[in-house]
Amino acid sequence: MAHPLQLLESGEPMSDLHSEEMYRSIFENAIEGIFQTTPAGQYLNVNPALAKMYGYDSTQDLVAGLTAIDNQLYVDHTRRPEFVRIMQEYGAVRGFEAEIYRKDGSTMWISENARAVRDASGQISYYEGMVEDITERKRLEDELHASEQNLSALINNIDDAIWSIDTGYRLITFNATFSHIFEEAYGVKVKVGDVVIDLLPPEWRAEDIALYDRALAGEKFIIERRYQFPEGECYYEISYNPIRTNDTISGVAVFSKDITERQRAHIALQAAMVAAESSNRLKSEFLANMSHEIRTPMNGVIGMTDLLLMTDLTHEQREFARTVRISGESLLVVINDILDFSKIEAGKLDLDITDFDLREVIDNTMDLLAAQAHSKGLELAAFIRPEVPLDLRGDPGRLRQIVNNLVGNAVKFTSQGEVIVTVSRISENATHAVLRFEVRDTGIGIEPKAQARLFQAFSQADGSTTRKYGGTGLGLAISKKLVALMNGEIKVDSEPGKGSSFSFTAEFEKQTLALKSVVRHDLSGLRVLIVDDNATNREILDHHTRMWKMSSDLASSARQALEMLRNESGKDPYELVILDMQMPEIDGLMLARLIKADPDIASVRLVMLTSLGNQLDSEDMKKAGIEACVLKPVKQSRLFNRIAEVMAGHQPLARKKTQTATLTMKSPITPPPNLTRKPVRILLAEDNVINQKVALGLLNNIGYGADVANNGLEVLAALDLRPYDLILMDCQMPELDGYETTQRIRARPDSASMRIVAMTANAMRGESEKCLEAGMDDYLSKPVRLEALRDMLSRWMPEKKE
Q: Are the C-beta atoms of residues 200 and 208 closer than 8 Å to each other?
């Protein structure tokens, strides 16, 4: 079958060559655009390929909607007259290029092959032709042209002199700087073909020939040369690069950079360094005086805290006082380290070797940073592997400083997830042990190019780090020096956006008389269920309990824990559940209540793990059936003691309530315990903490309490667990607003008796109607007045009992 282009180029009408059916098949299925137009430019017939090319949905749309002249098809208006002129003069065009508008206003480049078809009298009846899309080709041509222009402009505008020679030292190419130098220095206008050696002063020629010959022999090198000119000394850095063509060296490309100012700056810098050394000595003396002035009151803080710890304190007060003391000691260590840095550099700092308990060092460090981690919602945990010896000799203060610095950095640069400290054994003999400490986080990570300078003094990953996170950049440099003093090394493994892992090794002596182990064997065989949504925490707790010879199982959610407890209740029931407070869907507090509400599993003992910000008082614990709380990060000895107390039937001392704010929920999890003082169940749906406090305060004044949900998802989760008589619904909440939440509630079969009252700050006309249409029963505008709230409650809760 003939190609359409062959039909066009034959010079005969297509109908004379083939049947109408064959012509139509070629016309419809050709991949090139084919057209017929009147001499005036009106399209008579086009094929689908052309319509698609021009952005039209069909050939009819193109024929009906586009006239080449009337609608200015060509971007350059002179192209259409040129096309017509060629057609009239020659009867055909070949490779006629033009930029045209498509239907949507975008442009494209086309190449046209066309001919004029004449009638019997010789007059042009119509044009017919083919169109090819050459947009991509034109783009590449433009890019190549622009690249050549940019390269030429770059070479000619660069301050460095650039030139190349052939094997006869004749100039092949050179830039404007090279030409300017020769004209200024020697009054010579260089041109292609000049022998560059002949243009130089005679005393330089032998040396330059030797340099060119080195490059012509295949050597690539850089030299610095000093030139003495009448106006003074000049220094140049010159790079010689062989030019290879078909595996043969055909010339040399040379780049010459004026480094006179750099050399002068280097000389000035050397003088400045001498002055800086003197200044640094003065600064060191100032720091020494300042550290003394700071240490004096710090000693008072630490000393008075020691006296406080000797007095009668509650368990919580003692923990707070211990944290103050540890913080004071840590601050004192930092102050001392600033002073000691110069000693480290000079190799004059000695470690203070003494007996210490490794677990105590790690636990104290974790205690110090627990509040900061929990305030950011981070999991902070430490795990010392069972094979690690605990009774060691070394410098516990310096070890604590390193770990504190690494964990502190991890918490600082992590916004969500976890920070985990792991201590493992590398090697051990009768007298010494080499340990590996790893601090792993899920933070922002570090760019590879920034990792190399992390351990340099006064350096951080980048300048924005100091502005955003603070810090001097001294901690890791000091840590590296201290690790070296402990016969170890420190390194980092990090990927941007995926967290970091800092690890170091250290060698310690082993104590001659080992301290007594904190592990007692009276709890061996105890059946324990560990419930925590964080996999790392589950692993750590599992290791702890198994080291104490307990029998432990793991659950990653409250629902899984309930299923495991019920499945084992008639076989080998669990005796103890260690549960985390902060878990999704059903938190630890609600899980405790669900366990105690089920008579088949209610006898199990409960120990809660919680953070400083979510401590429970004795009344909360009693209501939920929790017998002890352990603060995170969990100390192994502290957890063991609490378990021993609980299993022995000893109740921990009641602690004074230190936080009165209502516990709120993560989305979507179950609500906190009901706090109502009257037998009316109220749920407050409000995402603003201040507004929550206001609403709870108003309800409390009237004599009611309420559970709190932060958004619509939490409302729905709360209703899955218990019914409510009244919901005070904020309309504007994240994740699921009050309108949609109400509609979902009303879709439930058991919602008819539930009253929903809108609480919104929107005072626009129609807001009350919008609330009622969503299924709400009433409407309160903000700010909510006490009397309005009281009237609403009396209207919808008339049968409440006092």
A: yes
Token pair for 498: 């995926």
Query: How much is the pLDDT for 29?
Result: 86
Alpha helix segments (H runs only) across 413-462 = 448-451
In this structure, of 3-7, 378-382, 652-656, the range with the lowest mean pLDDT score is 652-656
Best mean pLDDT range from 82-91, 145-154, 640-649, 759-768: 82-91
Residues 6 or more apart whose Cβ sits within 8 Å of residue 5? 32, 113, 130
Judge contact between 428 and 389, C-beta under 8 A: yes
At 434, the amino acid letter reads V
- Residue 624 in this model has a pLDDT that exceeds 60: yes
Which one has a higher pLDDT value, 146 or 239?
A: 239
Backbone angles phi, psi at 175, to 5 degrees: -100, 180
User: Letter for the amino acid at 55?
Assistant: G
Helix axes 396-412 and 475-485, enclosed angle (nearest 10): 150
Closest to 602 in 3D by CA, of 591, 618, 588 = 591
Max Cα-Cα span within the chain: 124
Neighbours of 129 (CB within 10 A): 24
If you search the block for the tokens 């006082």, which residue do you land on? 321
Give strand pairing partners of 45: 36
Mean pLDDT to the nearest integer, 592-618: 81
DSSP string, 1-44: ---HHHHHHTSS-HHHHS-HHHHHHHHHH-SSEEEEE-TTSBEE
3-state secondary structure of 377: coil
Distance CA 699, CA 718 (A): 19
> Could you tell me if 455 and 476 are in contact, meaning their C-beta atoms sit under 8 angstroms apart?
yes
Per-residue model confidence as pLDDT tens digits over 537-552: 888 888 888 888 899 9
The H-assigned helical ranges of 420-529 are 448-451, 463-469, 475-485
pLDDT of residue 270 exceeding 70: yes
The CA distance from 258 to 274, in Å, is: 27
Per the model's pLDDT, the better-predicted residue between 602 and 649 turns out to be 602
**Strand pairing class (682-685; 726-730):** parallel
Token readout for 446 is 């570090």
Note the pLDDT tens digit of each residue in 521-531. Answer: 468 889 999 99
* C-alpha dihedral (464, 468, 474, 479), degrees to nearest 10: -110
The 10s digit of each residue's pLDDT in 636-648 is 777 888 888 788 7
Q: Using CA atoms, how far apart are residues 661 and 588, in angstroms rounded to an integer?
A: 18
pLDDT digits (tens, 9 = 90+) for 551-565: 999 999 999 999 999
Helix or strand or coil: residue 427?
strand
Higher per-residue confidence, 55 vs 661: 55
The residue count of the chain comes to 802
- For the record, the structure tokens of 492 come out as 């980092």
Cα dihedral 709, 711, 712, 713 sign = negative
Cβ–Cβ under 8 Å, residues 51 and 62: yes
Q: Please check whether residue 756 is in contact with residue 742, taking contact to mean a CB–CB distance below 8 angstroms.
A: yes
Mean pLDDT of 294-301: 58
CA pair distance 536, 381, nearest whole angstrom: 8
d(CA 393, CA 507): 10
d(CA 328, CA 726): 50
Mean pLDDT of 132-158: 81
Among 330, 328, 396, smallest CA distance to 359 is for 396
CA separation (Å) from 223 to 159, 265, 489? 18, 19, 38
Q: What is the DSSP letter of 798?
A: T
What secondary structure does DSSP assign to 601-655, as a single string? TTTSEEEEEE-GGG---HHHHHHHT--EEEESSPPHHHHHHHHHHHHTTPPPPP-
How does pLDDT run across 331-351, given as a tens digit for each residue?
A: 766 666 666 665 566 555 667
Of 659, 663, 667, 650, nearest to 624 by C-alpha is 663
Q: Which of 401, 400, 420, 402 is nearest to 410 (CA)?
A: 420
